[in-house]
Structures are given as C-alpha cells and as structure tokens.
Write a structure and sequence with these properties.
The complex is a heterodimer of chains A (about 300) and B (about 450). Chain A is mostly helical and about 300 residues long. Chain A is built from 13 helices and no strands. In chain A, α3 packs parallel to α8, α8 packs across α10 and α10 runs antiparallel to α13. The C terminus of chain A is likely disordered. Chain B is an alpha/beta fold and about 450 residues long. In chain B, β11 and β12 form a beta hairpin. The N terminus of chain B is likely disordered. The chains are: A mainly alpha (about 300), B alpha/beta (about 450). At the A-B interface, α12 of A face α3, α12, α19 and α20 of B.
Chain lengths: ~300, ~450
C-alpha cells in the first residue's frame, strides 16, 4: 500500500510539473493583465498624466461616476438589446437550417460546408462585406430594392434600423456555429423514439416539441451561451459599419470603453467599464449554466 | 512640353541631391569607401494617409539612395493614426522617429513634452543649410506647431482649408442661381436644385467636429467660451442650436441616401461622379474634382466657405512633421524632415503631382501652383490664401488645438448625427452635447 500511495503521489507530482508551465503562461497572459485592469480601474489613470496610475486616493471614483454617466448607461441598454437580438436570431436561423439540412445525402453535406464559410472569415472581412451591402451607392441590396420599387434609406444611418443591421451582419457570420452544434446533436438522435412517436400518431410539431427538442435543448443552451458571451465582443462590425452611431444608436459598452481609452486616453475610466462588462459576462454565464444544461444529470 | 517637364524633374532631382549632399558636409561627409552617413539606420515614419505622404513614399528610394537609411513609412487612416500615435507618444515609446503632429492633438502632444523641439536642428548650420529657410513656411501655419515655450515642434506639410465647391454648377446656373455666398443663399440654392438630374444637393465629411464648426461660428456660436483661456463649452446657446438645426437639415434634406456615413473619400467620389452637387470641406479633397478621372472637371465651381449672420469662418487645419521625444534616431529623423520638406521637394510635389496643400510661401506664390490649382477657371490657390488670411486675422481656430478638443469633437459628431437621423431635436442634441462635454472636461481635470 505504501508503494501504491507513493506511486499516486509521484503521478500527481508529475501532472503538476507538467501543468506548471501552462499555468504560468496562463497567469502571465490572462490573470496578470486582468489584475492590472482591476487595479487601473481604481485610479484616474490618463495617459497625459502617467503618474495617476498610482493615485488610489479615491478608488471608487470611476465606478461612482459610471452610475451617473448617461452614455455608459445607454451603452448597457444597447448592449443588452444587441445581445438579445443576435443570440435569438442566431439560434433561430441555426436551428431552422440544421433541421432543413439534417438529411443524409452528399448534396446536403456539400451545402453544409458552404454554410460554414462566413464563420471562418476574419471579422474585418465580414464587416467590409456588410459595409458594401449597406452602402446605398454600391449596394446590390439597395439596387435590388430600387429595381423592385421598394427604395430604402440606408440601414446603418437610420436610428431605427442600425442596431438590427449590425445584428443581421453578426448573425450571418455566426449562425453556422449554432447550426453546426444543433446539426451534430440532431444526427445523434436515435431512431427508436421517433418511430415510436410516429406509430403513436404524433404530428411533426409534436415530434419536434416532445422528442427532438428534448435532445437538442442542451446544445441550444450551450451554443446560446457561447454566442451570448461572444456578443459582448461585437467590436469590428460596429467599428466599420456604424462607428457607434448614428448618434449613440449602436454604441455598445465595449465600444464605449474603447472610445474612453483610445480616443480620450481615460484608461482608468475605461478599465472600470471593462471590469463592469467582465463582471456582467461572468454573471450571465453562471446564471445561464445554472438554468439548464447541467440539469440532465438530475433527470 | 514633355522635354520641359523632364528637364525640370532633373533639375529638381539635382537640387535635392545637392541639398542632402550639403547636409552631409562638413564633418558629415561619407566615409571613404562609399559608406553613407545613415547607412544601417532604419527610420520609422508614420503619418495618416493623405496625398503628400503618398508622394513621399514614391520618392523614398531617392532618400534611401542618398543617405543610406532605410525608411519604413506607415500611413493608416486618420483616426487610426491618431489613436496609435497618441498611445505611442504618451507611453514614451520609441517606435516612431518621425510622426505627424496632428492639428487637434498638437497642443496636447507638444505641451506634454512628447515631441522634440526642432530649433536646435534648424539653427545649427551643420545640420540645416540657411537656404532651407524655415521662415518660408507661412507663420500662421507654424503657430499651431509652436509650444508654450516658443519652440517649434513640427514643420507644416499640409494645410487643409475649408472651402466650398459645386461639382454640377451647371444645375445652379440652369436654375438662374449663382455660387452661394451666404448660408441663406446655400439653403435656397439647394432647395431649388436638389434632386435635379438625379443629383443630390449637399454632402460633407461626417466628421462634424470639423465640418460643422464653420457653420456654428458663422451663426455666431462657438465651441468654447474663450479658448484657450476659458474652456467652458457653449454648445447650447441659441446661436449654436440654430446652426445645428440648419446644418443637420441640409445634410438630411439635401444629402444622398446614407449622407451621415460619408467619409471625405466618399464625398470626393460622390462629387467626382456627379451624384452630389455641393460640398464644403478641405481643399485637399475638393481640388480632386479637377483630376483626370473626374466627370465634373468641366462643370465645377469653387468659392469660400459660406458666410453666416456672424461672418465667414473657414476652418484651417495644419499638420506638421515632428520627432518624438523618445526617438533614438533624432538627427536622422531631422535629415528626413529636411529632405521631405525641402524647397525642391515641396515645389516638385506641386509641379509633378499637383499637390493642393503647400505650406511654403514661395510655393503658394509660385506660378506653378497657380496653374496647377486652377480648375475650370477657378483659382483655388487664391481661395485658400484668402481663407488662411481670414483665419489668421480672426483667431477663431484656437478652439481646435486645446488638449481636450478631441472629447468635444466627438460630442459634436454625435449631436449632428442625432439631429440628422431624427433621434433628437437640435435643442435636445446640443443640450446633450453641452452636458456631455462638461462631464468629459471635468474628467480631464479642466476647471470650469
């Protein structure tokens, strides 16, 4: 027995030794910058006055100011709207297409590959594609609408459509992710329950509602969670398409943090915004995790 | 004609060669065996993308051949350049040896000590020959490049002067109208001609912190109460609200579809293709209406910025080449600036490349510039010179070089976009801009 314990201890030590370099790298590239960000958020750091990095005389000033900053509060609302829109659209489109493409045929397999293209494009390329689509002078979409007698105002310069325009572009890029996740789950559903449902006289909706949905629900929650977290990083599309406008119509929270840091050099204030955003993403992730996908174990 | 041009080019090249040769002497002569003084030096230069940097990049092999230096020249877009340079300078980085001293950042960068004073280089005859003649750069353009200590921190390479142009002036004439001189004339003219021949009436740069301010001042408003001494924003005065209402209306009612997303390059393309008629922006852009690819070179007309109830306030923005305080190649950087802005090269840019934004008096007054800047019979050089004179006498551009202007600049961008997109009334938008500006200035530690 002592020999066995020693072997276990040796194994643990070997695992730990193997893990240490990775943990050190992880700490250096993520934990240290995050701690620096948290520290900076407690200072009035401005690049015009680098010494302000060590001014902790009023550590909560940035957070107190955020509570009274209408532009920041507006950006939170905008962020929630954009996240809700993009996650809903991506789940709906991904689910719809996954159901349509859940057919065993070489033709549909080829089609699936085509649908994956937007997801592998660099975000800036996606942004440029949609900039062209949304710029009336050169837009094939606007030319088509003109041709059929339905001329439309520029979608990215109208306050009522700008956020939706960004969400559509984001959905175009990321629906393949949800589609792929759901399709993989659909292809793992055994035939027996489906056949049993058919014998019992269930219609298509009932089969989907009571059998298919039960199987794909975890995949929907996981992909929705991933997309929710990622929606907080929707920067390139907004930078290229709308620059946060018109006015502040698409100014989401991370974009506002970017403006404060890179346009105005208020790094302390921008760090506070980033910390609030980080906390929000963590909380949402935790809450979403608690809501559903671990529930299977108990069922 | 062709021979004359070649001869001129050769002369200019010889002159540039002599200049740089002169820089290398005395005591700076190439070492025996042919080694050049800057051999092994890599100069990192960064400015925003504009016509003159594009010309310099084309000519870089000549500088490298003459000095032995290798030049890495980076030209991102204007906002990206400003973000990068602001970050690099503020952190004391040495990534750049020569930078553009951006007009709206000039006070901030110079007075924070982030740039190198150039006076010692200029005064030293071993480093700068007398005929390089720094006084030839217009005094009004050197002023924003000068610090509170009276030292010069940038040599002007570009002056962007706010003028106006009608790409399809024939439509104005067909309606029995002349070139609009006042803001009222402009409104009436646009109302009468917008949509004629499928041509939209008005478009301008969506950087409203630049393109709106001449209208704001023409209506009797201003950005700050009395810059640079009193930086209290005055964006919610009745004059400012009236100006915003007027300006947003001409953008919205007479602009092309998506007008509030137009960048300067888009403005130029829209004018050159004849899709939009009138614009008021910088002459470096409007001068491109005379380019060979332009469809409107024969129908264009040019004039001063429109005059309002309070007068005429053409904006003038100056950009200079400077050396970061942390540069490790300051002497080589100065050699580059001297070469780039030598009399020979600035004249050559006018003659060979039709550059529309000279900064030397001798270039402004040269017959070559008058010829190259005359489009469809309109003397753009004269319009620019008159605008610069108005600006120098009026002193109204002081609002633009205060360190906190970038913050207020963005408030103005948002205000006009909010009005033109129908989200807010002019009063609401300007009151919001006023409150936002005050909050930003307080955060910057400005006493109001």
């Amino acid at each position: 027995m002592p020999g066995t314990l020693s072997w276990e201890a040796s194994r643990r030590r070997a695992y730990l030794t193997g893990l240490v370099p990775a943990l050190v790298v992880l700490a250096v590239i993520t934990v240290v910058p995050t701690l620096f960000l948290a520290g900076a958020s407690l200072t009035p750091l401005s690049l015009v006055d680098p010494a302000s990095l060590f001014d902790f005389s009023n550590p909560l000033r940035n957070y107190a100011e955020l509570l009274h900053d209408p532009r920041f509060l507006g950006s939170l609302v905008m962020q929630l709207q954009l996240s809700a829109l993009t996650v809903t659209l991506q789940l709906a489109v991904g689910l719809g297409l996954a159901l349509l493409l859940n057919v065993r045929s070489s033709f549909f397999e080829a089609i699936r590959t085509v649908f994956l293209i937007p997801m592998v494009l660099p975000p800036i390329v996606v942004a440029l594609i949609w900039k062209i689509i949304y710029t009336p002078d050169v837009s094939p979409l606007h030319r088509f609408l003109d041709f059929v007698g339905l001329p439309a105002d520029s979608f990215i310069t109208s306050a009522s459509t700008a956020l939706l325009a960004v969400a559509v572009a984001d959905t175009w890029q990321w629906f393949p992710f949800t589609m792929l996740m759901i399709l993989a789950t659909l292809q793992m559903i055994p035939n027996e329950p489906l056949e049993a449902a058919k014998i019992d006289g269930a219609n298509h909706w009932q089969t989907f509602r009571y059998i298919i949905f039960a199987y794909i629900r975890p995949a929907l929650i996981v992909s929705g969670l991933f997309r929710l977290i990622d929606s907080f990083k929707a920067f390139p599309l907004i930078y290229v398409l709308t620059d946060g406008g018109p006015g502040s119509a698409t100014e989401v929270t991370n974009y506002y943090a970017f403006v404060q840091a890179f346009n105005f050099s208020y790094w302390g204030y921008a760090s506070a915004i980033a910390i609030v955003l980080l906390t929000g993403v963590f909380t949402l992730s935790w809450a979403a995790g608690r809501l559903g996908w671990n529930g299977d174990e108990g069922e | 004609m062709f021979q004359t041009r070649n001869f001129s080019r050769r002369r200019v090249l010889q002159g540039a060669g002599l200049l740089v040769g002169g820089l290398l002497l005395p005591g700076k002569a190439p070492a025996q065996g042919g080694a050049k003084r800057l051999a092994g030096v890599t100069l990192n230069v960064s400015t925003f993308s504009a016509p003159f940097p594009k010309i310099l990049i084309k000519w870089l092999p000549e500088f490298e051949q003459l000095t032995g230096a290798k030049v890495v020249y980076d030209t991102p877009s204007f906002p990206v350049y400003n973000q990068r340079a602001d970050l690099e300078l503020s952190t004391g980085g040495s990534a750049y040896d020569v930078v553009n001293v951006t007009f709206i950042y000039s006070s901030r960068w110079i007075n924070a000590g982030w740039l190198t004073p150039l006076d010692d280089f200029i005064r030293d005859p071993n480093k700068t020959p007398a005929d390089w003649d720094v006084d030839d750069f217009l005094p009004g353009l050197r002023a924003p490049e000068t610090g509170k200590d009276g030292k010069l921190y940038g040599i002007p390479w570009s002056v962007d002067t706010f003028i106006s142009a009608a790409a399809r002036f024939d439509l104005f004439k067909d309606a029995g109208l002349g070139f609009p001189d006042t803001t009222d004339d402009l409104f009436d003219t646009l109302k009468a001609t917008h949509g004629k021949d499928k041509v939209a009436g008005f478009v301008t740069d969506n950087h409203y912190g630049w393109s709106f301010v001449p209208f704001l001042q023409a209506f009797g408003g201003n950005v700050f109460r009395n810059p640079p001494d009193d930086l209290t924003p005055v964006l919610d005065t009745p004059e400012a609200i009236a100006a915003a209402e007027y300006f947003a209306r001409i953008v919205k009612d007479f602009g092309p579809n998506g007008a509030i997303s137009y960048t300067p390059d888009q403005v130029v393309k829209a004018l050159q293709s004849g899709r939009v008629n009138y614009s008021a922006i910088g002459q470096t852009y409007l001068a491109q209406l005379g380019d060979s690819g332009s469809k409107v070179a024969g129908t264009s007309a040019f004039g001063l910025a429109p005059r309002g109830p309070a007068g005429r306030f053409p904006g003038v923005a100056v950009h200079g080449l400077g050396i970061p305080a942390a540069s490790k190649n300051k002497e080589a950087a100065w050699t580059f600036i001297q070469w780039a802005l030598s009399k020979q090269n600035t004249r050559r840019a006018l003659v060979e490349e039709n550059l529309a934004s000279p900064t030397r008096r001798s270039d402004f007054e040269s017959p070559e510039f008058k010829t190259s800047s005359t489009i469809n019979g309109y003397d753009i050089a004269g319009i620019v010179r008159e605008s610069i004179d108005i600006s120098a006498k009026g002193g109204y551009m002081k609002y633009r070089t205060v360190p906190v202007y970038p913050q207020v600049d963005q408030q103005l961008n948002k205000a006009i976009a909010n009005i033109a997109s129908g989200q807010l009334s002019a009063r609401q938008a300007m009151e919001q801009a006023q409150a936002g500006s005050i909050a930003e200035l307080k955060r910057a530690g400005v006493a109001l």
